[in-house]
């Protein structure tokens, strides 16, 4: 049979107060991409490209990590 919500015993389930890890970025999170043009130092671009295919994705990952760190340190 089915129980109504008020009949369920939830006393052994801890209440979640920290939801910071509830969303896993990268697994289901797909931010909207926006095309842009940037000027990079030639050696920085060469370094990114030397790591193989996908340098724009790597550049975005590096910038996202820097952004997340900054947001964590300066809420």
UniProtKB/TrEMBL annotation:
Domain of life (superkingdom)? Bacteria
Q: Which InterPro entries match?
A: BrnA_antitoxin (IPR025528)
The protein's name in its UniProt record: Toxin-antitoxin system, antitoxin component
Please tell me the species this chain comes from: Acinetobacter rudis CIP 110305
Query: Which lineage ranks, top first, belong to the organism behind this chain?
Result: Bacteria, Pseudomonadati, Pseudomonadota, Gammaproteobacteria, Moraxellales
